[in-house]
Amino acid sequence: MSNSDGGIVAAIAMTHTPGLGDRLGDPPADQVERLMAGFAEARQVLDAARPDLVVALVNDHFDMYSLENMPTFSVAVADEHWGPTPATEAWLQMKRRRLAGHRGYAMHLYREAVAAGFDITRSGPAELVHNVLLPYRFLRPDCDLPVVPVFTNCFAPPLPSFARCYALGEAIGRIVAARPERVALIASGGISHWPPFAKEDAPADDDLNRRLLEVQRLGPKGRELDPEVRGMILQREVEMARSGRELINIAWDRAVLAALERGDKEHFLRMRYEDIERDGGNGGHEVAMWVMMMGALGARPCRTIVYEPVKEWMGGVGIVSYDRVLTQ
Known about the structure:
By secondary structure, the protein is α/β, with parallel strands linked by helices. It is built from 13 helices and ten strands. The strands form two sheets. Strands 6-3-7-2-8-1-10-9 form an eight-stranded mixed beta sheet, with helices on both faces. Strands 4-5 form a two-stranded antiparallel sheet. A hairpin with a 4-residue loop joins strand 9 and strand 10 (315-321).
């Protein structure tokens, strides 16, 4: 999977649950300690790989795109990106800053993916929030690696199938392997969780849902017009976590991790939208990025560094790494 000293030198997938922002004090201390130990180990893996840049496999949460303009896949082609948004600085515990991009690499990836038969959209500078910034906060706190964000639509059906995400991952793996740069793949999202989200075909039965639908319709402009919505979402998540409802499917999470560990791509290629929605929640679709990473690594086995079902964050939180197969 590499070209001389370059190619994919690290591949890590992790959850980007909002609880990792300003709610580290909510879960039991021993659970947070295990997670922090897992992040420390993953950070060491990334450091040891000495990457030149990061290709981030992520999804957008209506900070870049909208229901009126939602690409299935897109690449942000720019030499600089920005984040977090002013409204999310307190939540993410990070100040807004410029983050280096890599226009030349992003453009090459874009061209080659299109040549391989993927109708990917090209975007400009990315507005990054927890999709990239939580991985950077815990895996690369200096935020000193250029990033090429590759976005997948996970919230505006119809969504790409896991089979299509896997195939794009295969293409990305070939593209990266053909170049001399040392690349770290970082995928974020998932695992099972049911975040507050307004579906287009569902009744807007309360004030938050009505406002969410408008934000989703307008995207960045909607967030600008209604900056309070983000805080309302985070508060709703706290309320949901305290409700006693089952908002984590531990069995589904463990099956996902086990399939990744054994390199069982068929486990994911069999999954359909309805299955994921039922068993992994509306946030479970973010596993698409983990499947894309799996494709880039040719379904080689990975290892789970840590997994914790965090009730207070209403989601399964996990980290996997391919360091053992990449150092063989």
